[in-house]
Amino acid sequence: MWPTVTFEFGYTHRYEQLKERVKLLLEGAEGMISKVIVVKVEPLVAGETEIQAGFVEMWCLVKGKAKKDRGRKVIFFNIASRVYFANMKG
C-alpha cells in the first residue's frame, strides 16, 4: 500500500535536497503517490528564538516526471504565534 499524499519537511535540509526526495517519492512510486507537500522552514540564526519564515509547495507527477503544482506559498510567523500565508509565483 502507498500513501496518497506525503510530506517532506525541511529545517536543516537544503531546498535542493528536498526536491531530490520529492523526485524519488513521486517518480519512484510510479504514480501510486499522487501529491508530495514540501514544507521548508528557515533555520534559526543567532539571537532568534522563534521561526521567522518558510514556504509550502505542492508537487505531483506529470508524464512520469515530478513537477511543482502551482506556485509557492510563503509562510510568515510572528511573535503572537499566528501564521500568515502569501501567494508567490514560483
General description of the model:
- The chain has a 5-stranded mixed β-sheet.
- By secondary structure, the chain is of the alpha+beta class.
- The relative contact order is 0.19.
- Helix content is 16%, strand content 47%.
- The chain has one domain: 2-Layer Sandwich (SHC Adaptor Protein), CATH 3.30.505.
- The chain is built from 1 helix and 5 strands.
List the domain count as a whole number.
Answer: 1
Radius of gyration: 14 Å
Query: Helicity, in percent?
Result: 10-25%
CATH topology: SHC Adaptor Protein
Shape label: elongated
N-end to C-end Cα span: 32 Å
Largest sheet: 5 strands, mixed
| Count of discrete alpha- or pi-helical segments spanning 4 or more residues | 1
Q: State the name of the first-level CATH class.
A: Alpha Beta
Question: How large a portion of the residues is in β-strands, by DSSP E?
Answer: over 45%
The CATH architecture designation is: 2-Layer Sandwich
User: What value does the average pLDDT take?
Assistant: 85
Q: How would you classify the helix and strand content by structural class?
A: alpha+beta
Order of helices and strands: EHEEEE
Contiguous runs where pLDDT drops below 50 for at least 5 residues: none
In short, what is this structure?
The chain is built from 1 helix and 5 strands.
Can you tag this structure with a few keywords?
single chain, 90 residues, alpha+beta, SHC Adaptor Protein, five-stranded mixed beta sheet, elongated
